[in-house]
Design goal:
Chain lengths: ~170, ~400
Amino acid sequence: MDTKLEKIVQTLQEKFGATLEEFRGEAHVFVKPEHIIEALTLLRDAHEFALLSAMTAVDYWPQDASRPRFHVIYQLTSLARNLSVQLRVPVNGSRLKVPTATGVFAAANWREREIMDMFGIEFEGHPDPRRILLPDDLDGHPLRKDFPLGYEEPQFTFNFEEIDVRKPYVKE
Amino acid sequence: MSEYQLQEIPVGPYKHLVSERAVSGETMILNMGPQHPSTHGVLRLVLELDGEVIVNCIPEIGYLHTGIEKNMEAKTYLKAEVMTDRLDYMNNMGNNLAYVMAVEKLVGLDVPPRAQALRVILTELQRIASHLVWLGTTALDLAAMSVFLYCFREREIILDIFEMVSGQRMMVTYFRPGGVWRDVPVEFEAAVRDFIKLLPKRIDEYEALLTKNPLWLDRTVGIGKLDAATALQHGVTGPMLRASGVNWDLRKARPYMGYEQYDFNVPTDTKGDTYARYVVRVQELRESLKIVEQALDKLPMGPVRSDNRKFVTPPRSEIGTSMEALIHHFKLWTEGFPAPKASIYSAVESPRGELAVYLEGDGGPKPYRVHWRTPSFDNLSVVPQIVRGHLVADLIAILASTDIVLGDIDR
């Protein structure tokens, strides 16, 4: 890991009790949900991480209830110092709430809507909490691991009508 | 009321996004798209209009959502690559590159120098093709019909080169983890050299048609100004960010695939308007040509795939004679190779900006989670900010200048 980045990670560790994982030169810093906004603001203002490159989540289902089911991931880039750091926020399956980062990075607005849509994690204080990619009336959150990959029954001439009745689309 | 009359949209679901005047009925809320020739795909825009002036613009996306991220979780690393072509259908080689680089980083796989150089040549050609489509469609939106025809004529040559190397014009899947599918045919070099000799003159022709054309200037100069701070706040990258005065190109900042060997400039502009974005992209066409030429001059001989048999399938010729090769071939195409239980983030510079893959393995042969950080998604999210106060006709110019691809946004 870059020495400049090491110092920044140390600051995060001291201030927020963050833990660090490294893989192939990438720094993954684990931060608690209650500290995430402070941590993002600190990185943006004090360490020139001006770009929220990506924001996503991972579902670790099935996981025993004591451990966090989701990780919300913030990938930050510093253009001025040419550094990258990843913040990961573990979210417990029983309390799916993370404070919104829209106040720190405007890019978080749509990214958070996507995570809401795909994982059902709520971002508290989000200005526009609508679904973004999926239709409003869809049940469930497809990128969760307990959401099955879709399958459509093939129709043939001999059973076309029979299967058509079961198909989910709107019928005239 | 005839069915062809304009119909307003109820304020209801957009109440928190529109101005007070829309609620009182003073401004109109109208729909643009999802089937509209100038939205470059199935994009729906909900516009709050005061006469012809845009008060608010609310993009509605997701009409092209294909669930690629979820689908990739159900496929092995090798098989999932086929879907990457379908994301940003103007940047197939670039998507392949982003994906194979992520896989290579996750499993720790080296790529031979010849394969790296081929990847650079082909992604730069793809960048040229993508910018040509952008230039043509933008000019078409702004009523310069002939540029569209010329740009597509040149793009055709690139697609023919792709067909020559991969057998496909668009859905190439040519780059594979550890190298490329197979070496390029002998005619490849001559075809690319002909193209790089031809294109500079053709770019001059496009510029002669547009750069100083008063109608073009009227439609683009000072339209949709985006300052650097707003751009970074919204995660805008690529030519759009560079047109706003930020010199940030991953090919320069974090060279991959040997980009550090090539001498090229990163065009920037400070004005941040639609015209600046046009200027930056046209200069990028010339810079990409420089890279292609240098890479072709330096193109080393040697293998085009890694010989690490645990990840890369052996060549066909070995299968008939070597037992191990047959076993590896069978294992890799049925079970696939395992990747470590870890996650990586790998980014490349696509024609639209930072295209990145978040890839997480779980120790098995299928990705646990794939996330595509697609540049168009963020580049579109800034549009509502920059169209305020412009006319509807200018919205078309601004939207075209962002160079969005809906397959890239909706994934």
